[in-house]
Write a structure and sequence with these properties.
Number of strands: 11
Helix content: 40-55%
Number of helices: 9
Largest sheet: 8 strands, mixed
Structural class: alpha+beta
Shape: globular
Strand content: 15-25%
Radius of gyration: 24 Å
Length: 368
Amino acid sequence: MAVVDISEELKSLSSTMGSIEAVLDLDALRGDIAVLEEQAAAPSLWDDPEAAQKITSKLSHLQAEVRKAEALRARIDDLEVLFELAEAEDDADALAEAEAELEAVRKALDEMEVRTLLSGEYDAREALVTIRAEAGGVDAADFAERLQRMYLRWAERHNYKTEVYETAYAEEAGIKSTTFAVEVPYAYGTLSVEQGTHRLVRVSPFDNQGRRQTSFAGVEVLPVVEQTDHVEIDESDLRVDVYRSSGPGGQGVNTTDSAVRLTHLPTGIVVSCQNERSQIQNKASAMNVLQAKLLERRRQEEQAKMNALKGDGGNSWGNQMRSYVLHPYQMVKDLRTEYEMGNPDAVFNGEIDGFIEAGIRWRKQSEK
């Protein structure tokens, strides 16, 4: 690569990084970190463990954001020196090393640029993810469980904290539904592009004739409700049922009726939680999920009004958005962005960043 080309390339990378730094507003982030550090140092911090966990989690996330941006800026600045040394010494190995670092910096810059596209009203929130088996019988239930594992593995790869609120197991295999939280800032903005219907095509392991089966699972992603959201729920509008928690195959995992199911009578929305030992804790978690669903319902109603004013028929987020084909060939393809991977095993093991990044860019482009 010519020296002049490198110089222009580095100027372009530096300019892009400057735009990212401006959007992230690193000075503001450092100010937020200083406030959180002060709160985290308070002797009474752990008097309220839930609030303390939120403070320490947010502090850790913001510190990581700033460190990541600072480290990438330093790598961009160091690239010029790497290429100058390689050229001065006419060292082919050093030049190859510099070019490899240039490619790595490009990739890291692309990933960070995606973060700046998350500017929606609720994008900075944590996320509640619900997965439901749809058409396809036992294969759909098995598919839903594989999707749950996929998202939990993705979160684990990024060191994001998750909490499974409720899982309803199917009789033969897999799950009927599950709800879990991804407890990191911007989880909603990141995962919201995963919402929709996912399709699996494979030779069914549950069909003794070895026939190809198509099954479906639905993914719903909601922002976690905060105190400023004002989602009012009248106790008289709720039906509360308690039951005994259970695991796969009906195996009892709790000897008391601690699991809680809430039915919101005006809307018919039903949520449940069984991950805690205490009925009170399960009801509180279920209320959080119900509030998130009511908030999303309100957001959709407001969006529908805006679409009606614009003469817009709305979008197709609830429609089929990704196919996972295991037979007769191996391919996972997003039907909106055309992004694809030929390794379904890696995808089901949580390697979905490429799909998420392509989805975020697609959404931003669609909004223009």
